[in-house]
Amino acid sequence: MSVKDLVLAPVVALVAAFAVCPEAAAASAPRLLINQDFPDPDVVKTAAGYFAFSTSTGSGRIPVATAAAPEGPWRITGDALGAVPGWAKPDGGFWAPDVTQLADGTFVLYFSAAVTAGGEMCLGAATASKAPGPYTPVGDKPLVCAPEDHGDIDPQTFLDADGTRYLLYKSDGAPTGPPAAIWTQKLQADGRTLAGPRTELLRADLAAEKAVVEAPSVVKTASRFLLFYSADTFQSSGYHTCYASAPTATGPFVKADAQFLSTELLAKKVDAPGGADVVDGHIFFHGWLGGARTARGLYELPISFPNDVPRLD
């Protein structure tokens, strides 16, 4: 390799890794799918139709909704979590669920809950034979509960083309320590056993993030892995969604240079869009309803990935 090559190589690599996040508004208006509290949505496509799950509301520990098509109509049908795990506070809430189906047909539900001793948030799992549940908690302790994280929330799974299953989640960070970060760790085939050490994917290091990155969701495009995430505090209209890009599922991820979903980019038709999940050509997300801070509805927009870059259609 020549001296010139040695100089240019890192520059070329940086350009190739850098993600460009378009600031153009969506071509179509966001569609409100569930006009009641349904925060932190996770959407799953199955042979029986589409199912969506949310953080605890008056509809249940983990409300579940169903529809025949992504655009709806969506209907909340009940509570997906059939019982409270023994390690969790029954009245502490169950946050940001994620559902995946294993090779043997079993459905696994991941969730965040407060532990009975100490009250910090940790990650748990439950299983069911059908997507809507009811799910039965597994294990007598949390799946992830790292004391140094000061709370672990927002589980999300990703199945790579080679069959490797990853669990992503957020560590809360601390006011006097490192800010929030997003991690990934391999799962064994049972979907309930961690395999190997975890890897940090990104950390809240931008001023606009206000020390918060959360709600991870990975999408594989033709040649890249895109990690969507929310930033800022969820109560604020500044809460937004962006993404980072990487050549592999474990990184290194490079943050895009602009926000992807925000109150302003959506022409204030959605207040504080976050908790994004991409399924079957649609991006689902929540936003505050009615100009208040009491309920977050479920919204949807079509999305595509020309040249490995997300675009709202």
Question: Can you give a write-up of this model?
Answer:
The model is unreliable at 1-24 (pLDDT under 50). By secondary structure, the chain is mainly beta. The protein is globular. It contains one helix and 21 strands. It has one domain: 5 Propeller (Tachylectin-2, Chain A). Strand 15 (225-231) and strand 16 (240-246) form a beta hairpin. The strands form five sheets. Strands 1, 18, 19, 20 and 21 form a five-stranded antiparallel beta sheet that branches.
What keyword list fits this structure?
single chain; 313 residues; mainly beta; Tachylectin-2, Chain A; four-stranded antiparallel β-sheet; 1 helix
Write the layout of secondary structure elements.
Elements (H helix, E strand, L loop, with lengths): L2 H15 L13 E4 L7 E5 L2 E5 L9 E5 L7 E5 L14 E8 L5 E8 L6 E8 L7 E2 L14 E8 L5 E7 L9 E7 L6 E10 L9 E8 L4 E7 L8 E7 L7 E2 L15 E9 L2 E7 L7 E9 L6 E2 L1
